[in-house]
Amino acid sequence: MAKKKEQKDMAQEQEQKLKFQQRLIEILELGKKKKNMLEYQEIADFFKDLNLDPEKFEMVIDYLEQNGIDVLKISNDDDVDDDIILDDEDEVEVEKIDLSVPEGVSVEDPVRMYLKEIGKVPLLSADEEIELAQNMEDGAVAIEKINVLKGRLDGASEEEKAEIKEEIKTLQRDVDKGADAKKRLAEANLNAFALSRGITKSYNAMSQAEKVALRYQYVLKATANAQGDFARTSSSWAN
């Protein structure tokens, strides 16, 4: 019985490898049809049913780039903080997760302890907020420019295509900086939200379960605030 199961597992593994290899050929053909350019999300969707781990997905990216395919990390959803969204894998019983002060920490003087601990939580300065906002704006502008440039590839000469691709690569740096700024701002918002609830552990120091619980509470709070704003203005001329 155990031997049959082992043989079955080996057969499934072999089938998965063959399917992955076939997909590599297909994605490369697709990239060549699309003027040697593919978007990161487009590649992720192409391999979605194979459930690739991050290491294998990076292998796909390396394979494409080694074969002359430029991979653009463009996101069209600039209004959503990826680090705040709850995924299907994040389905946990948040009400059972304790985000309070850890055991063994003295709470005889909670105010003193709180003031001491919040100094360890990284918050943004005004200058940092401005810099991140500027990077996010530059990233959004770069995405628009890249989309325009991609449209110019049709009918362009080989020399013009090379120039366009070089310009796209340069703009991609701004896209990456914008995505990083967006992530840092999301983490800063979560840190600030945690402090407002008396949680002094930084977001990056939290366990996965604690992060999920905090993000869940943050989304609930943001939704409640949005509903409150709508209720206050629903009878106004604007609505």
What does this structure look like?
By secondary structure, the protein is an all-alpha fold. 64% of the residues lie in helices and 3% in strands. The protein has seven helices and two strands; from the N terminus they run αβααβαααα. It has helices at residues 2-33, 40-46, 54-66, 110-118, 126-151, 158-196, 208-233; strands at residues 37-39, 70-72. A two-stranded parallel ribbon has the order 1-2. Helix 5 packs antiparallel against helix 6 (158-196).
Low-confidence stretches: 76-92, 105-111, 113-120
What string, H for helix and E for strand, traces the elements in order? Answer: HEHHEHHHH
Q: Helical proportion?
A: 55-70%
* Rg for CA atoms: 24 Å
Q: Mean pLDDT, as a whole number? A: 75
Question: What would you call the shape?
Answer: flat
Which structural category fits the helices and strands? Answer: mainly alpha
Number of helices: 7
Describe the structure concisely for a colleague.
It is built from 7 helices and 2 strands, in the order αβααβαααα.
Helix and strand arrangement:
Elements: H1 2-33, E1 37-39, H2 40-46, H3 54-66, E2 70-72, H4 110-118, H5 126-151, H6 158-196, H7 208-233
Parallel strand pairs: 1-2
Helix pairs in contact: 5-6
Which features does this protein show?
flat, 7 helices, two-stranded parallel sheet, single chain, 239 residues, mainly alpha, 64% helix
